[in-house]
User: What shape does this take?
Amino acid sequence: MIAMKPTGYIDGFIGPIDQIRIPVLDRGFLYGDSVYEVFRTYQGIPFLFDEHYQRLLNSARLCGMHITQTPQQLVEAIKQTIEASENSEAEDVYVRYQITRGEGAVDLYPEPGLVSRLIIIVKPVPSWKREFYDVGMTMSIPHQRRNAITSLDPNIKGGNYLNNILALAESRDQGKDECLMLDAKGLVTECSNSNAWFVMGDKYVTPQAGNLVGLTRTTLMQLFSDAGLEAVERSIYSEELIEASECFITSATREVMPVKSLTLESGRELEFAKGGGSKTRKAMALYTAMIERFVDDNRDKAWF
Assistant: This one.
């Protein structure tokens, strides 16, 4: 069997990822002037594809970007890129599709009438360390603060990640796996590219301030509601974190991942149950069961 080849798409060209070339005058390259989404498949079925696309449109709306590709063109390009990856073993895939504002003058102001550019990356779903699920990951709060929402709306899922990069680099330098970012007021926001959850009292609590509306988080909220479990989205000050008995993070590729320790800015380390406490394990079980139902209900919608 031939192993799947990471494959890319740009301007109608499809080929190995190392052959994809972005023009130097592209605004996504020059300024991070782009929006993107990431989704994965389960047994060849794209998960939450419509929801991801609607979030992409909202990101474009928030930054005043006109997307010239139609939904049909996008879907066809993604399918062709998946097919070109020679995925003979029908391995599940990670798909990142990015829309840049296009190519123009070297000028911050985007001239009217630019033609947006579609770039696609298809590769195997990331394989996270088994230890992260069996034991948990480590996290710390860096000094780097999250961009203010009045400066850059977190619901623009855009190509400029320097704020997150600096925060994650600081936590990695401390020997941690992930960062948990605060805003200027000391409110908990999100991790470098995932949403954070805490168990406080008998509730699941997730931060309200400065967050991208995570689709995995939204899905989990509904699962908790359906199961009669209390989950709230509210402002969380960093000082409150000492009240948390459990912690986990969520994203499209991580799903539900437990956190075994969180180091505060003061240096104090909060420790949580290895592999997640009972409520974290419940969240993991609910999400896994939902995916199984999704696959059973959507086998006729598989793309490969």
Remarks:
- DSSP finds seven helices and 15 strands in the chain.
